[in-house]
């Protein structure tokens, strides 16, 4: 794949029109007002039939799983799929204006729902998975804690204690996307059997908003991604049955499950970066032609040309990473964690550089919110931090090379 | 109910258009897209077919080089199939020639209703739909701002300068719809995926039983004799208020017959 197909271009144009009609005119309210992003995201899902597709896909998958292992082991046909890459296109197009929307959507569908769909029992998938996949309900994936970020498992303090047939959960989580509004929370903690914390099993539970002992904070103030509500969760003796333990077994390899989720999370960042870079470049080219200084459009000055050329190089490289992901997906293959890390590291760094250069190219106007690149620049920074910091990606890549 | 929608595939208006110096008409060599004004007709046709509870929407188009990009967009919205007339001998065809070609293609679909835009976004002649109706011997109602079909009749609120007329005529008929008639839907993911496999019947002039001298530059009764660049917009007039600004603004608007 070296260019977008006719179908992909048609979808890109349609989603772009939706974003420019529904989101761009309301960007101030979404970024700085009290309007959560979910109704707009649901409208997008309904407009493009994404909710019906998610439901149909879910039903087909559950039917296969109920039929037994033989049916579930059938691989999807790879290659030549007209819909290849379709799920990445809304990410790219939303990020041209509002990366926060993608974060809110991605955490609910890509992390919370995926965790349940990959490790849950059929009953758990039917109970929580389908509503998350269709965006009827909003999900959070809660791993980070005040004292544990990059060292997510090593420093994790949240606990589950056995109490008869039930578990009692305690702990606090922070930087949780959708935390303030989530209906369904995937909560990762350690089983406290009185043993050394580093030897404890990692367990995952599914919680519902409003459960006794569960408190969801108001949105936290942050540098960017203002349209994506981020909050804290506090659990105080939250009592749950085994039906809420993901997979309904303590033998779930939750660390491995979380790592699979990390890999998927990281690959989504390249598509986000592409949307931000595309828009920064488009706005910068238009501004370079229009803005006149010293009697010339600034695009005639070599220092400005260098910025534009570097942005284009980044755009081409990131687009190629996205094309690779689409090709691999169509072939039924996924990236290794190290490759996903490499992909994310490059895309995030290149995106940040492009967004900073766009602000610089716009000069004083770039520093003003009105011209749009200021918001994209603030939003871009998070790509180097969430889903594993740049430093974690580097160590992951190096570990893979040296192992 | 079977509905035919006449759709035009035009050069992307977002790109600067170029004129062919010989024919003095728009160059149409590159990728063409669905004329935005036709999206309203496609939507109207889909709504009428859905309301009727049966039947399908067929697109009819004429374009060079077997171009189908614009048709795929309308197929992704939900049209069932398309008929595309593409033939080298069609180069230089005028509006009446186009109407002959489209009328011949429409006949094959045997529609109950034909829907067209009031005019295309690139040519703006606005003459084609009624020519098609005349050739087919069908009644036509133009400038529809709302459309309903019931009891074998099409009922139209027809936009006029003063308001609208309520018009009805028996089916089959041809209507032209304005941009305000309905809001075109977005193509869904599923619709886009399905569009590729929907049938597009490609026909030549001979397939339609027309002779080459009825169409193309040879059959054209219209000719573009000259093209001049549009006058550049003049800078506005600045009125400095010396106590009489309001009167001068009123006089200015009055002169433009805006008040």
Features:
heterodimer; A: about 400 residues; alpha+beta; Butyryl-Coa Dehydrogenase, subunit A, domain 1; Butyryl-CoA Dehydrogenase, subunit A, domain 2; Butyryl-CoA Dehydrogenase, subunit A, domain 3; 7-stranded mixed β-sheet; 14 helices; 9 strands; B: about 260 residues; alpha/beta; Rossmann fold; 9-stranded mixed β-sheet; two-stranded antiparallel sheet; 11 strands
Description:
The complex is a heterodimer of chains A (403) and B (259). Chain A is an alpha+beta fold and 403 residues long. Chain A has three domains: 6-137, Butyryl-Coa Dehydrogenase, subunit A, domain 1, CATH 1.10.540; 141-251, Butyryl-CoA Dehydrogenase, subunit A, domain 2 (Beta Barrel), CATH 2.40.110.10; 255-402, Up-down Bundle (Butyryl-CoA Dehydrogenase, subunit A, domain 3), CATH 1.20.140. Chain A is built from 14 helices and nine strands. In chain A, strands 1, 2, 3, 4, 5, 6 and 7 form a seven-stranded mixed sheet that branches. Chain A has a two-stranded antiparallel ribbon with strand order 8-9. The longest helix of chain A is centred in the C-terminal third of the chain and has 37 residues, at 254-290. The two termini of chain A are 32 Å apart. The model of chain A is unreliable at 74-80 (pLDDT under 50). With 259 residues, chain B is α/β, with parallel strands linked by helices. Helices cover 28% and strands 23% of the residues of chain B. Chain B is built from seven helices and eleven strands. Chain B has a nine-stranded mixed sheet, sandwiched between helices. In chain B, strand 7 (140-150) and strand 8 (153-159) form a beta hairpin. Chain B is globular and about 70 Å long. The chains are: A alpha+beta (403), B alpha/beta (259). The interface between A and B is medium-sized, with 16 and 14 residues.
